[in-house]
């Protein structure tokens, strides 16, 4: 990727900002063009802090804009001609999709369509165009799949939330565009990403905020949920490796392109019980001085039934990622939560 122009959408987001930082620090002569609409789904100050760190790099360009605005995307492609596109812009969150479906259709469907169209037209008039489109999918596409670990070979036709349905739609749209226009594309199904300066709507962050205020945390499905928690650095490492190896363009017997299309899981391949997760989190919050040593956790815990749209377990089969890229996420939950707790202890807002 030396000397290339990379477009990162959702660049002020948790994964987007960490990815951009890594690219700018480690790859020579790279230009990172980032776009983000800076919406207030969660505290914008977090997004501004992430952007502030990126703005110190002279080869970083930030555009405040929305991928659901076709003109914005077309102008961006025309001006910067990105060779690699990483789409991390999306309306995230399963529960929010139940009450605010419009945001998901706008960002996750129309926004992604705009990017696919821009990639398609990047080849107009014999131009080299986009070499690789990498986009975020989600473990939520597996729905309430009973077979674990989840494999990318499994059928994923029964989403249990609109968010999951939009992510499955992204994979289908990418496949169609890969077939029709020979666009190399790779979808990445992320499994419960966490870490410092993460998303406040995620359980580990939300629990911490509530415990600090002395509020009660609700543990769903009476604590019988399992999640494949994946530390942010492992996610970024996986994305960087995938970015550099686009699926090969090949022609089939029908004379048409065989879709240069792949989908991978990026997860820790080690699901943790929610009650164990809460125990580790509280130990690390005490260790970092976020909470006092005599904090009464039992008084601040409530076991409640499962919520609509949630699933009891997420568990990634990461064998294809390991086979194709020699990489497997490995950060333990304790190490990851320790880094989060230490970051939280030093935050000023």
Automatic annotation (TrEMBL):
Q: Tell me the Pfam families matching this sequence.
A: Epimerase
- Keywords for the protein's UniProt record, in alphabetical order: NAD
Q: Which SUPFAM superfamilies match?
A: NAD(P)-binding Rossmann-fold domains
Annotated signal sequence is none
This protein's source sits in the domain of life called Bacteria
Q: Does the keyword Cell cycle apply?
A: no
| Domain spans labelled NAD-dependent epimerase/dehydratase | 6-248
* UniProt-recorded name of the protein: SDR family NAD(P)-dependent oxidoreductase
